[in-house]
What we know:
Layout: E1 13-14, E2 17-20, H1 29-40, E3 65-71, E4 76-82, H2 84-90, H3 109-120, E5 124-130, E6 140-149, E7 158-165
Antiparallel strand pairs: 1-2, 2-5, 3-4, 3-7, 5-6, 6-7
Amino acid sequence: MTEPSCPGRSGVRRSGVKIGATPDLVTNEAVRRFHDLWLSRCQDGRLPTKAAMDPVEMRTYLGGIILTKVHYDPLDFEYRIIGEEVIARLGNVTGKRVGKTALVNVSDSAYRNYCLVVETRQPQFLEGMTLTAFRKDRPYAMSRVHCPLSSDGETIDHILTYVAFR
Length: 166
């Protein structure tokens, strides 16, 4: 399978939003701790599996979790699990495809950000004010990290996100 080519760039800053692959982009300690938890599950240079991310160990993060399934050919992403805090603030799009629904903001940057995770095989961080498709009149201050997961340690089949609102 050919690796997909994704639009967008890592490390960009647009209209007060910082996006990139380094954890120092975010100031939220919970997001940094979640990333550390994900890192602790990476073994021998291989990405962690979905099963390695135990919900019991992640209980303090569950309200801000988003689990996205990766679909290939064509590349798209499906919202599979969304935490209660995320639903309360941004709406429930469980079962919807990212290509047709913008959960995090009203542009296509949610799709581009997920693409970057697949393309780079690295977490992607975001911090700043963002609009949502469900509440266009109310921006949210948020921090988040998208973390790749792989059932075989190589091919990304899920992306686990933690979102913290400020």
